[in-house]
Structures are given as structure tokens and as C-alpha cells.
Fold these 3 entries.
Entry 1:
Amino acid sequence: MREKDDVKRIFSKNKEAYVTSSTHAFGKDLSLMINWLQPKSTMKVLDIATGGGHVAKHLATHVKQVVATDITEEMLENTALYLKSYKNIFYAVADAEDLPFEGESFDIVSCRIAAHHFPDPERFIAEVNRVLKPGGQFLLIDNIAPENHKFDQFINSFEKMRDHSHIRSRSLIEWKSMFADYNLSIIKERTRKKVLPYHEWVHRTLDNDEIIQHVGQFILESDKETKNYFQVDCEDNIIHSFAIDEWMVMCAKRTD
């Protein structure tokens, strides 16, 4: 599939950036997920699309085993080098929509800042449901699209300009519908505005000055309402930062 080839190409090229990225490596959500999940030393965790391995690293000290997966082999190999001191993290090249694991084999499944790259989110959620034990927990953290159509179009358009592997940030309505269809009950959730440093964000995936300029112009030429919604901070046509919507949700697989 072309979309998945784009993911492999872009993440192979930028594997170091996702280990060091301030957006991915830090954030209150990493400590909050421990508080929400209350992981135990007997548990087995699956971290889908692990990227730089930040979730795997944080959970590894609390559980028996973490299986960190990614569709991009080079990304996974690089992350394994950074996390080589964590002896209970194991690695597997795997497609989020076609997981190579037996059913009902994990106590916790996590996926952070990755699902907007998945072409078929419903199949992803079906796989989460399949591999999760009854009563097990699923933690999803991802960028979401606003319900306002204009803002939805704006965020997904410029994300795609900057990263061809971006498929779509989905809305809360879309995600919640899928959860309901696949036996996942929401236990806790929160939304927040996530502020992104523009220079780091745009250069994480782009090195073509013409495309970088095009992305910047797209933002600068947006209307005042859009700039206000996305909290665009700019001065003298230099963008310093902007903010997107992010959702953190913990679900449990129903046992009935």
C-alpha cells in the first residue's frame, strides 16, 4: 500500500528526530498514563507504532514485559539501540492493522501520536480488540480533528503538506463510534491544546526549502478565526509556534 510505503520512507529517514523530538520525548501525558493505567509487575504490554519508544520506556519499569512494534524496521532498530538497557522490552516489526500476535494476549495496548498515519483506523481498533485480554486496557493518544469542518480541513491539509505519511487526524465522534463497535468502553479521557514549536515541527520531516516555505505561507495566509483557533504565534511573518487538539483516552475491553 502506497500510504504505508510513505510511512516507512519518512520514518526511516527521520528516525533520530523522533527519538529526540520534544513533542514525543516529553509531555505530561507520559506520567499521566502511568497514573491512569496503574500497571502491575505481572502485566504484558503491547506498544503499537512505538516510534522513538517513549511509551515503551516509561511502562517498562512498571510491568513484566513490553512488546514494542513499528512498521518501519529502521526506526525500530534505532529505538532498540537507545533502549538497550531495558531488558524487558522486545521488538517486532508489525503493521498496526495486521498484528502478528495471538488473541487476548496483552493486558495493556498503547498507541501514542501515531494513529493519524493509519489508513484504516477501524481495522486498527479491531486488532486492538482482538489482542487485548477481556478487561484489559487500551490507551490512545493522538492528534484529533476539530468538529468544525473548516478547521478540520485546515489541520489535515497542512499536516499532509509537511508529512506525506499523514493520513488524517480523526474527530472524537469518529473514534468513539469505532470504540463502541469494537467492545471498548471509555474509562477516562481528556483533550488539550498541544503547543508545537514550529521550526522543530516543520524540519522534523522536511528539508526542502520550497516546501517548508509553502507550509509557512499556508498558515500565514489563513484567516483570523483559524489563526486564533490554532493559537498561531507569529511576528514579522515568522511563525514561532501553533497549537493542535490532542486526545488522551483510556478504554477497557468489555467482558460481557
Entry 2:
Amino acid sequence: MQESKIKVIVGSTNPVKVNAVRRALSAVLESSSIECVGISAPSAVADQPMSAAETLLGAKNRVEYCQAQQDADYYVAIEGGVDQFEYGAATFAYVVINDGKRQSIGRSANLPLPHSIYQALLKGEELGPLIDKLFNTHNIKQKGGAIGLFTNGHASRESAYHQALILAMAPFLHGELY
């Protein structure tokens, strides 16, 4: 069987996001060769989305932008955000995958945030630089992220995205059921 080539446009140049998309799609589309191209796609939301709705809108906006730029088999965006839930503040990400005919939305697990960090976010700080200050790291959002630091390396930003992406691929893998 000949390997098919799949072109994927990712609405970010962040290597963590591009690698997560490449790994996840390579896993679920195992008989295909995946070419992932990251482009700078505006979210048209705040740099630090502070609600689930704003976070999802940012991911949708990035996918729409990618679709307007070039042809691909899939367009993918990942948007990280924060929200205050009844059980406390948490950070998470939405993923949006679109193949031009169908769109699927997924979401990562929540990482609980300390109250002090959430309060700083409410004052306008962004999570990545805030975590860099707290843990004395540099550009953690392009590495393991807050997830990696708060879990002592047992999970990472990429691993959280990876699972959300795989789950969001279900409608593409079983289109007849969706």
C-alpha cells in the first residue's frame, strides 16, 4: 500500500504546538506521511484568554485564518486559556481541526492553578511569562509549559495537546458515524 501525503497547516509557529499536531496526526493517520507547516495565525482574542468561550473563539479564528491562506488537507489550531470554575482556576487548551468539510473541537484536561497565579492573570499578566518568573525559567511556553513544571515533568504542554488532538480526530476517522 502506498503511503499518502497529508498537508496540515497549524495556526502557530510555536514548536510545541506544531510537534503535538505532527505527532498526533502521525499516530492516527499511520499510513500517511504528515507534512506540518506552522504559520503565524492571529487569534483575534486577548494574548491570555480568560474564559473557555474566549479560548475556543481564538482557536476557531486561527483555523479560519489558516484556511484563507493556503490549501491543505487539515487546518489545526490550539489555543490555551484560563478560566475560573466552581472548583477553582485552571488552564487548558481548545483544539480545532478542520478538513474543509468538517470541523471537530476538542479540549485538553485542566491544570489547576494556584490562587496567586490566577490573581496575577486577572491583573493582566500572561501565564507563560508569569510561570517563567515563578520557576526562574525562560520561554517555558515553547517547552514543557506550566503543565511540565507543576507536574514535575510527568506531563507536558505537548502531551496535553496530543491527547486532545487525538480525541478530536474521531469524527475524521469515523466520518460515517458523525
Entry 3:
Amino acid sequence: MSKKGIIFDLDGVIVNTAGFHYLAWKHLANDLGFDFTEEQNEDFKGVSRVRSLELLLEIGGKTATQEEKDKWLESKNEEYLSYIDGMSEEDILPGVKKVLDYLKKKNVPIALGSASKNAVPILKRVNLYPVFDATVDGTDVSKAKPDPEVFLIGAKELGIDAADTIVFEDSIAGVQAANIAGMVSIGIGDAEVLHEADYVFNDFTEIETQFLDQLLKN
């Protein structure tokens, strides 16, 4: 039986920094004279910072010079980082720690696969950095999900074949990336949004050890 490896996305899977992104984008939108809703924020999940700004400007019907865009990207990121600075273990999403502890006990290789360029500082803030055997983040990849690059690099770093890799994701782009790579995709969140995933759970509190055992066996 070939060895399995597991890759976790970060935002919305391990910690809910998506909420911090939302607050920072909303603040920028309000400064520019329009509102930005949580529903609209759904389309920003798993999307690069530059593309997110383009989407925000489309929502507000705004045009901007490159200089303005660069300034806004920087101020948005500074606000986001100020939220990260206040993070602790309490920001780990419910049930995640139990699943990670179980996988470590079983010696399952695990990696982080995130578009975030702040993934490592976040993991360090919440004391999870030593848990991961590999971390692949926005500084390691050039293509955004649904391109599977981030997960393929993660599998390679774990020394695991794509077909033996299991991915936990909260965005449809991330689920699609896992599927394109030929990996098992597990959605965390709304089943209607993540319907392309092989399995979907609302959160990690719903994931039983029997399910994990079955996944690692198949």
C-alpha cells in the first residue's frame, strides 16, 4: 500500500484569516466610497491580492492608476498584517488541532499549500509551524489556484505521488486545483459552493478518526 500525504490550505481551513482579509478590503472599499459585503468576499477566497484588488475596483466601478493600486495594495496588506500580529492558538479553527494531532501520531506526512505570502508567520503565531513537514506558500508559486502548482510542489516536497495526496480546501478554486492534480479533494465549508469536492464537511469537528483511517487506507 502506497503512503498517503495530506496538504492543508491555510485561510478558512486551519485559521480564519479570511475574516481579516474581509475587514481590510471592506475598509479600503469604504475609503473609496462604496460598500463591500461578506457575500462579495466569497469570490476573493483563494485569489491573489492583485486580482482581489481588481475585483474590488470592478465592484465599486472604479478605475485607478498603477501607482494608486500599488499604494492601496500596500495599505491593505499593512492592515491585514496588524490583525495577524494579534493572533494566537485561540485562532485555530475548531477540530483542526485534533485532526493534526491524530495524523502526526500516525506519522502521516503533512504540508501546507497556501496562496498566502504570510503563511509562515501565521503558523508561527498559532504555534503550528513545527507540525508541518513542508510549507508551500505564495512566495513559492507563480500560478494561482485553480492551477494545481501549489499542491504539486507540496506533494513533491513530501515525497508523495499526486494520486496519494489528500487536500483540505475551503475555496472552489482550491478544490478544482486538487481535482486537476488528480488528488483527493475534501471541502471545508458550504456543500453547495464546494460541490466539486470528493467529500465536504462544514468544519473539522465533523471529521471522525474512522474517516481519516479510511482515507489513508484507500
